[in-house]
Amino acid sequence: MKTWRPFHVVFCTFACFFVCLSHASSDTLRHGQYLYSNQTLVSAGGVFELGFFSSPSAPNGFLGIWFKNDKNQKPVWVANRNSPLDSDGMVGSSSVLLTIRNDGNMVIIDRRNISYIVNYEALASGNNTTATLLDSGNLVLMEGGNTFWQSFDYPTDTFLPGMKLGLFNINTEQLRKQFLVSWSNTSVPADGIYAPGIDPVNNTQFNVWRSDGAYQQIGLWDGHEFNFFFKSTLDNLNVSSGWKTNEIYVTFSNKNSSMPSWFVLASDGLIYEFTMIGNEIKNVDYSLCDDTMASSSPRCLVRRPSACSERDSFSNVTGMLPSSLFTSWPIRIDPYDCEKFCTIHCSCVAYTYDSLPDGGTICQVYYGNKIDLQKLVGTGNSTIYVRGNASKSDRKLLTATFMVIPLVFFMLILLLWIKCSSLGIYGFRNGTRDSMRLLLSQLSSDDNASCPNITELGKQKDHELPLLSFSFIVTSTNNFSLTNQLGQGGFGPVYKGKLLQHDIAVKRLSKNSGQGPVEFKNEVQLISKLQHRNLVKLLGFCIHREEKILIYEYMPNKSLDSFVFEKTKTRLLNWRQRIHIIEGIAQGLLYLHKYSRIRIIHRDLKISNILLDAYMNPKISDFGLARILSGNECRAKTNRVVGTYGYMSPEYLMHGLFSTKSDVFSFGVIVLEIVSGRKNANFYESDHSLNLLGHAWNLWKSGRAAELMDSTLADSSSMESLVPCIQVGLLCVQDSAEDRPTMSDVVSMLSNEGATLPTPKQPTYSNLTTEVDKPLNQLPSVNLLTFSEVEAR
Hints:
The chain contains 15 helices and 40 strands. It is of the alpha+beta class. The strands form 11 sheets. It has a 5-stranded antiparallel sheet with strand order 25-29-27-28-26. A 5-stranded antiparallel sheet has the order 30-31-32-34-33. The protein has a 4-stranded antiparallel sheet with strand order 1-10-11-12, with no helix packed on it. A hairpin with a 2-residue loop joins strand 33 and strand 34 (547-553). The longest helix has 28 residues, at 394-421.
């Protein structure tokens, strides 16, 4: 037996070697290696550690980086801060993991085997990639020795040495704005309400913004470098700046590398400077106030608006606004609009406006303390309009109040008339109502798994939709530049825009679309109230003369057809992701048909109307042709059939009859297209099937349904779920509407693996082979959405 011992030693050595190959080790993750929820990467010098961490609502829900010596393991960077993972939370569980996929991209996989691409902003071009955690805290993804993605380009709430905050790729279509964004609270890393960075409009300012649009300037460019109003107490920082034609940024380094310092923006708006001395972490906090420490400053950022105790009267003084807390809009607006905005906001203390060289007006609205304002009376040449009275005299305040009562009364009547007519034909003048606050609350709300889904509008308080001025829209889209255009639909062009540091999608309705003021009003009032994670969110709207504009949340991965039908991207969709997308579309339709307050028929459901967010979650869009079934109405009829060939049900195409089963038919077509990677309406196969539905039926009937599968899925699809998914698709495209399942049935069939499904009937073999994206009859789309018989609950 002794002669076999060397063999055992060698065998065990090789076995251990191959086992280690499948797991991450040291500071680097390579292709084929896995980092599970109970494992970490540690930088070469042992400074930083990467791994999974939890929040109260998401066990093992986030991937982050923290200091190795930090006993609290507070993450300095989070990969998926707004999209927590679905995991079982068990210690040592392998339900979530990090790996480098076959296509070279770094992905997080949850217990449903759904992939979240960490580097979705810069995808790999090959599969020879490695991920390394550096001693700087930077996670870099390299290919062939070159870094093509790094976490320092996408900071969260922490400013580390060597990281840059600023504007990059200026004057290009790939402009990147690097800001910090606070956590929503001390334990949840989702986006909060504070964000510091270089002002994109006035690049000489370094500001901290709050989610209501107010900001505090904390630094400025003096022509050589950025100087900050607060100074480090330990004098351990070397702050440097870059001011070039293509980038403007601020960065810093530590004078003593053995005693690192860094900054964190807390969820309450305080800025903390941390320093690690040995294994101890010390900190000092700075408020968003002028040159003062938080612990000694009485004039910190106002977090709660004051009441309108001084009514709506304003007196004017000569001076300047304090720099502590004001909102500025350097856009073309009227002085009247500036006054009106301050009047209807109780927290507005004062306002001023100045003329711009191009004829516009810059409006500045002050939210701070009136005592600070009084100290600057006479120190400037601007006329400041102060709520109540700028002086300390109660007698003068009373006199000023009585002088402006008639004016205030007239303004209130005017504001009431504007509000009542704001959704009418003529709209309102430049939209300066409470729109910025409403829009920012829309933009700041996240859509992650930690938030409950709103599935019954009757139980929710209806929210108000922001009415934005045309000037805001023009500015955000660079005057509707062709370089900003995302696409062209039946209703008109769609542009990418920027508002309040958020990407938006702007749909500018064509004058020839046939959509009038009544239909537009209905869409704004009804579609805006549809709140579901699988429906694109309507953020705001604009009415300006003949212009009618809708503002939606921006979907960075655009439409589903750009993945399913394009050879270069279809390989990015594995089977689990396609199932996830199919289930998401089904959930969105189920909400429209059953759980929304009013039963809504989409009528133009197609693969190009399914948009994908940054994490490939599907969202149904484009409700321009939607109809509402009121009361107990189960179907309706129209004399004008509009829609898209290849997706319309037989009863709608032939007789103009539509119901929830019409959307079910369209859903079935989408399912078969997602599975096969091929379009229905222009499908051709050598077996002479006239469309994709007929081809799928022939394969399923002959027991060869798996042959319908997209060829790129050969290595990732599951035969056990593939064939039932095809069967569900065929059930949805049956000729008779009565034979098709409801969306409740569809969701049940997709979620219950192994369940016995009904046998589908042979679908219609249509000879309509027009391109899928070509509208019927070439007529411009018309919004036929109505709700005249529906009363709000």
